[in-house]
Write a structure and sequence with these properties.
single chain; 145 residues; mainly alpha; Arc Repressor Mutant, subunit A; two-stranded antiparallel ribbon; 6 helices; 2 strands; 10% strand
């Protein structure tokens, strides 16, 4: 197989992954129905039960500190996270998920899981097993870099 064919095949895989991500995003983004955006879900999932700094959040999301601040300010307005200052040092601020944030994350993850499950129902059991193997191998390889 030529390098051009391999490149075309990989380009097609990348396009499909990005399209799948876009469709997942489209089906979770706020549209007046109380849905939380995919970026908000990713952020809430990263914060989890931890007390995260803005620097940690920005690094995880690969965004600038001002962008992280804007994102977190919106989540604070929504009541899903809160700032927690370290006693005696106002420079050290941690972001903590609220009970409302935990409920919102749970609902959002359930919505995404339903959407993905719906898409995977078109695959046979054998195809699902193969997809799991391939995605696992890809994720492991990317984690090693």
């Amino acid at each position: 197989m030529s390098d051009i064919e391999t490149g075309d095949r990989i380009d097609r895989i990348v396009a499909l992954i990005l399209t799948a991500r876009s469709l997942i995003h489209e089906n979770t983004t706020c549209k007046g129905g109380g849905r939380v955006s995919l970026l908000h879900l990713i952020t809430l999932r990263f914060i989890g039960d931890e007390r995260r700094t803005m620097k940690e959040i920005a690094g995880h999301l690969a965004i600038t500190a001002p962008s992280a601040t804007s994102l977190i300010n919106g989540l604070i307005r929504d009541g899903v996270v809160r700032r927690e200052e370290k006693t005696g040092d106002r420079r050290v601020v941690r972001i903590v998920m609220t009970p409302k944030g935990k409920a919102s994350m749970k609902k959002g993850v359930e919505r995404i899981s339903r959407n993905i499950r719906h898409g995977l129902e078109t695959l046979t059991r054998k195809e699902q097993t193969e997809l799991t193997r391939i995605l696992g191998k890809t994720v492991n390889h990317l984690r090693e870099k």
